[in-house]
Amino acid sequence: MTNFSIAxxxxxxxxxxxxxxxxxxxxxxxxxxxxxxxxxxxEPLDARVEELIALGGEAIGIVGDVLNIESLEKVAEExxxxxxxxxxxxxIAGGNLPGATLAPDQPFFDMKIADWEKVTNLNLNGTVxxxxxxxxxxxKQRKGCIVNVSSMTAYSAIxxxxxxxxxxxxxxxxxxxxxxxxxxxxxDGIRVNAIAPGFFIxxxxxxxxxxxxxxxxxxxxxxxxxxxxxxxxDITELNGAVQFLCSEAAGFITGVVLPIDGGFSAFSxx
Length: 270
Ligand SMILES: NC(=O)c1ccc[n+]([C@@H]2O[C@H](COP(=O)([O-])OP(=O)(O)OC[C@H]3O[C@@H](n4cnc5c(N)ncnc54)[C@H](O)[C@@H]3O)[C@@H](O)[C@H]2O)c1
Prior knowledge:
42% of the residues lie in helices and 14% in strands. The protein has helices spanning 19-30, 42-54, 69-83, 113-141, 162-186, 206-209, 218-225, 239-246; strands at residues 10-14, 34-39, 58-63, 88-91, 144-149, 190-197, 257-260. Residues 14-15, 17-21, 38-41, 44, 65-67, 92-95, 122, 126, 149, 151, 197, 199-200, 202-205 line the site of nicotinamide-adenine-dinucleotide. Nicotinamide-adenine-dinucleotide binds at residues 14-15, 17-21, 38-41, 44, 65-67, 92-95, 122, 126, 149, 151, 197, 199-200, 202-205.
């Protein structure tokens, strides 16, 4: 029998205070993983950890910044001291930032450089830095699994979000690069993959997808027209795919970006 279990594994999850990270963290605890929930915001994080423990799981919360290597190193030390290993890293912290989204009639030439830098830094370096710190522990263990979060913006252009798109495309490429680096230098025990979620309604995109009266925006209509399944994803639909990528069942899978998108990336629109 192939083993789809992640029970007993120690999983570091960044952005666990958020919508996607929270849902995946809950599913991990329910599957018996020990979860280290990291988020820069204390409030959603505290509530999340309470929720994870209430589910009967083992979980700790650490307020941390994925862009601060020194603080990540302390976190890594603390986890190894407490649980002995780091088996899984889910780089989920990230997302678009309001200032980095061009208004419908705003020319690209007026884009705010500070916001471009913020969004590319958070998404790309926010994946690279934790991979350096926790990946180093995995290299020593010769065992581990990293899952990054790319996006549909990495497949073809999505209007108005240039910085986010470039950063997510970088994450897809970095996933292949790091998968190769880890396997060549540290053996077949370390795997690096990514998921590319399609469109899920979360805090960051709700206002561009849903009108205040609850109806769908024009942008939503365009998204659904290019999604053969003709609906948005339910965030729980990411959970099984991430668990699979972290389990022994995926033991020969590394360097892939798995779309979870109702067919969006497969469809030309015609
Ligand atoms: N919601 C979607 O439809 C969708 C689609 C594709 C990809 N994604 C990606 O999924 C991931 C999670 O998205 P979400 O919708 O759950 O967003 P979210 O805003 O609900 O969660 C992101 C979390 O990351 C945390 N965070 C931000 N900066 C941080 C930092 N420097 N250090 C540590 N934590 C930090 C935030 O506090 C927040 O809790 C993002 O990478 C996003 O780009 C989301």
